[in-house]
Structure formats: structure tokens, C-alpha cells
């Protein structure tokens, strides 16, 4: 990328196939800065033929890369991690320009997470049990083959690296379809992988739409596994298409996470941390705690604290260091979130903060008003569907059993939280049907398995569990 995301003219990105830029056809897709509505880049609208070329390159590179000693593969992935760190400011600026994350959040989270996940899997691989003796069997863990990775726009580099780094350490080769809405960092990553010494063909990027490029990857007979992160609707389609060739499928899908506040919780912390995790990345986070389940007798007390905390969330230009919530990632996402706010009002939820309409002074750009609803019916649309924006639903409960039942009354099961006396909160956390639960604001652990129950998907990412997703297991009897 000779230009930067701050160039006056849009970047013109190409596919990355067999270690080099590879032009697509004449049809291209615009990448739009959601804060300014200006085109910052274009990418080729990839085709099934482009996928064929990328898969062929990955297949050709697989044998030699799989045979590369694991310590050498680890060293390459660690150099990729180092390369992301070295280009961190460029990456942060690119993410802010392509999908609107506030620049401070881009630096602290959007860049730091892929650095951490890639470095972590390199460390895990060094101590991993690649072989194991069970009775008279030698159990061997081997790479699956060619991995197709399909990733979303909300954490455009983290979601890529969480798949690519463990896949490469395991000895696989990769064909990536990054989101067409936020593809800038995938081009930077391609350069980083080359500088790190990754062989040609081991990592390939095909830009384009899900229905064309994503489906071609999922259906391809020479792709051995698909790892998908995105909406549950799209994940169902990927799974169905991939089933025709009986390939392995790992899905990280939607969420509607509940934050259960118990009677014995420290309310100040529960409210502050709870709101932060509801509105993280403008609410455009699959694990966002978008349902706050509170004791009915204390709802008004909690709302008073929520409204005071919400007033401190500045909405504005994502390049401003003080901005906490930038625009939604696109005009389409802005329209989606606004529609849910209108629906919540129409269905009778009590508006406690924010609401419909434009953000004053920010009529240009994909901005929405951060919103808090109270007295939300747990079966209502805003309590059941993933909004993917800064909209918090406060749901009152009468008994602890009711609180748990409400939390579990969802098609999703990705994340959640409990605040209360420690042992009490831990006991309630065990009752939640979800892949991750934070107790009293427990910190995110990049070594721990990440993934969901129910329609939030299957499989796990990060750490040892994320590495195991990309391995086959063979038993050799002797």
C-alpha cells in the first residue's frame, strides 16, 4: 500500500494471491468513510474464478508449509505479530477511516487485540502437545489443509488474525475473504505476512461480496475448512453451502448478551462497567451486554446512575481523541439501528436516554443517538434481536430464578455478565447458557476460549482452543 488511508485520492486495492497483488475484473466496490460519507478506497468485486486462483495457490503451498518445522511456523507468526505492532498507528487510522471506530479505541483495542492473539497463539504452539501416546496409539495432530476465512467489519483486523494466526501455526494455508466494507487492514496484513517470511500462497486475500466470494469459498471442494464470523443468518448459509462437501465449519455468530445485576451487587461498578460493555465500539460488538437485567425494586435507582454515566459518552468525529462513540460503520447500519429505536418506542418501552432523530451537529455521517430503554418486555423485538448499535434494554425482574430465565430466553448464547457478591455471582454465572460470562467486571482473557452456545455458533477461537480448531487428529497404532 504505497498510499495511506489519509490520502486525498481513494486507495485502489487488489486481491492478494500467491504472494502478490492480483487484479480482479473491472467491477469494483467502494469503501466509504462513515463519518464523512467519502470514498476512501475501492476493492475488486471478486468472482468464483478469483477464488479458484486463490485456492489453487493455497493448495500448492500447503505441502511445504505443513512440512515446515513447527518452531519455524511459530517464528513466522511471531514476526507477523511484531509487524502489526510496528504498523499499529497506520492500522488504527485505517480502521477509523473505514468503519468509524474512535481513534483511541482503534489504538487500544482494534490494534492491541490482534497483536495479543497472534503472539499468544505462538506461545501456545510452543508448548502444545502435537503428539500424545495413548496405550499402543500415537495420537498426532496435523493441519487440516486449506482454510477459508470469512470475516466481518466491526473488528476488521482482530477477526482476521484470530483465524489466520492459529491456522498458519497449525500448518494450514489460508484464503481470506475480508469484509468489503472494511478491507484496508487485510491489505496491510498481506504485506506484513510477506515481510515476516511467510511463503507465497500460504496467505491469500480475495475481496468481494458474501453471496459471491463467500459462497464460492464455502462451496469449494479444495477448501478443507471454513471459519466464519458474522451474522447468524449468513452463518446458516455458509454452513449449508459447506455441508455439500462435508468440510469442517467453525461459526462465530450473533449475540444478545445479558448483564444480570443481583440484589447484592455494587451498583456503581455494575452500571459503569455494564454500560461500557453495552456501548463498546458503538455497540457494534457481538458480545455487547445489550440487555441489563435488574431487580425491579431498584430499576429507577439504576436508571438514574445509567443516565448520568451515559451523559459522559461523547458522540462525534472518530478522529478526535476524546470521542467515545463514533458513527455506525455504514449508512445501512445507521438505518438499522434507528429502526430498532423506533420499534422500541412503538412497542411501549420507556425511553430513559437518547432516542430517535439525528445527533445535533452531526447531520452528515452515519451517527445515531445512544439510547437506553427501561421497562423493556423480555420478549419484545429490542430485547430479542441483535441491534448492533448503542442501544441498551433495561429489563426488570422479580426473583433470581426469573432473572436467569430471562437471561437464557434468547436464541443466542455468546457472552454475558453477572454482578453481585462474588460466590453468589459465580453461582448465577454457572446457570447462564452462554460461552463467556464476566463476573464483577472480570477482564477479557485472550488465552481463554471464545465462542458461543445455541445460534451464536460453534467452535472456539483464541488460545489453545483456537489452535485446536485448525487441527485434525490421527491415531497411529503400533
Task: Write structural notes for this entry.
By secondary structure, the chain is α/β, with parallel strands linked by helices. The chain folds into two domains: 11-253 and 456-477, Aldehyde Dehydrogenase, Chain A, domain 1; 258-446, Aldehyde Dehydrogenase, Chain A, domain 2 (3-Layer(aba) Sandwich). The protein contains 15 helices and 23 strands. The strands form six sheets. The chain has a seven-stranded mixed sheet, sandwiched between helices. It has a six-stranded mixed sheet with strand order 10-9-8-11-12-22, with helices on both faces. The longest helix has 25 residues, at 103-127.
Secondary structure: helix percent: 25-40%
How much strand? 15-25%
CATH class of the largest domain: Alpha Beta
Radius of gyration: 22 Å
In short:
The chain has 478 residues and is α/β, with parallel strands linked by helices.
What keywords describe this structure?
seven-stranded mixed sheet; six-stranded mixed sheet; Aldehyde Dehydrogenase, Chain A, domain 1; alpha/beta; disordered N terminus; 478 residues; Aldehyde Dehydrogenase, Chain A, domain 2
